[in-house]
Design brief:
Layout: H1 2-19, E1 23-28, H2 36-51, E2 56-61, H3 69-78, E3 83-84, H4 110-117, H5 120-130, E4 134-149, E5 164-167, H6 171-178, E6 183-186, H7 192-197, E7 203-206, H8 208-213, E8 222-238, H9 239-244, H10 250-286, E9 290-293, H11 296-306, H12 314-326
Parallel strand pairs: 1-2, 1-3, 5-6, 5-7, 8-9
Antiparallel strand pairs: 3-8, 4-7, 4-8
Helix pairs in contact: 2-10
């Protein structure tokens, strides 16, 4: 009997050794697994396994389980993780031109955003990031941002005056809120719910996916569907790790990434309507949240109030890049 147990154990060890991946990619991100980014990351992991025949394993760590977006940049450099998908603002100290995507009311719609990302401007940005020690793989969507508050409904730009807004670390976003006499405060994404709940900040800007999945709707009284800014992510790989991947596997990983990008865009579009419906249902059931839709005239007032920041960043971002993106 003991001999049989030993044989079974030996076979199990041999099997695990046979099927163990040659390369392991730890993919860290900060949002929930059921967001467009979270679902796309899981899809990417599945496709890498399929396309490489199990030679490359991707393990996804959502909801800041390993690192915040700020900390993950250092972790990538040190090799503690191999992939991440931080928001653009986390790269702007290295590549200030990426602040382009933070400019308020720059993009007309999602189609406009994708044309910029997939074109000359988007490639130029990726090249700049790659020169700084990361491999820039792809852009992922999280949708357009909207304004929310628990102090006062944000209908006119003057409504923002004096309100404390949680922002990502971005000079453009800071300037955007200063332009309407608000008080921008930088906080990690993982701290936003608590900060809103306890009045550390009054207001925020988020796409509907974050507003719903992170339950910000529980700690805000008013949501304004402003679509004033775009929030996206740049998926990056550790350059030192990428160098260790054999040339025959790299195209397969890139194929998985391209497919995941398409999946991300599909999910972002599909889930947007679903999130809004869920938020509207919550508002109707609880009565604690009011949803506001801006008229064209009201949106124009916000656009006029915030577009004054553009010239401030002509030298930092590049006036030519901004104008190419606008076209």
């Amino acid at each position: 009997m003991n001999k049989l147990v030993k044989v079974v154990a030996a076979v199990a060890v041999l099997a695990s050794a046979t099927f163990a991946a040659d390369y392991t990619i730890k993919f860290s991100h900060v949002v929930s697994a059921n967001t467009p980014k979270g679902k796309a990351a899981d899809f990417f992991a599945k496709r890498v396994d399929e396309l490489t025949g199990g030679k490359v394993e991707v393990i996804v760590f959502p909801s800041s389980q390993l690192y915040t977006d700020k900390a993950v940049m250092k972790a990538l450099k040190m090799g503690n993780v191999q992939m991440a998908a931080p928001s653009f603002s986390k790269f702007t100290s290295l590549v200030p031109q990426l602040q382009l995507f933070d400019l308020p009311f720059l993009f007309r719609d999602t189609k406009h955003v994708h044309s910029v990302m997939d074109g000359e401007v988007g490639q130029a940005m990726k090249d700049l990031v790659t020169k700084k020690g990361f491999v820039a793989l792809s852009y992922w969507d999280n949708g357009f941002k909207h304004l929310s508050s628990n102090k006062k409904a944000l209908i006119a730009p003057s409504d923002a005056e004096g309100q404390k807004f949680r922002i990502m670390s971005s000079k453009v976003i800071e300037a955007q809120f200063l332009a309407v006499n608000a008080n921008p405060q930088v906080l990690p994404f993982s701290e936003v719910y608590s900060a809103l709940q306890h009045g550390v900040v009054d207001a925020a800007e988020n796409p509907l996916s974050n507003f719903y999945t992170k339950k910000f709707l529980e700690v805000q009284t008013d949501l304004t569907l402003s679509s004033h800014g775009y929030l996206g992510y740049l998926v990056v790989m550790s350059k030192s790790f990428w160098k260790t991947v054999p040339d025959d596997l790299k195209p397969k990983i890139m194929q998985a990434m391209n497919e995941a990008t398409e999946k991300n865009r599909e999910l972002s579009a599909e889930l947007e309507a679903g999130y809004l419906a869920s938020i509207e249902a919550f508002a109707a059931k609880t009565g604690t949240l009011k949803i506001h839709r801006l008229s064209d005239a009201q949106k124009d007032a916000w656009r006029k109030a915030t577009s004054v920041v553009y010239p401030e960043f002509y030298k930092v971002i590049g006036e030519d890049l901004i104008k190419k993106a606008q076209k």
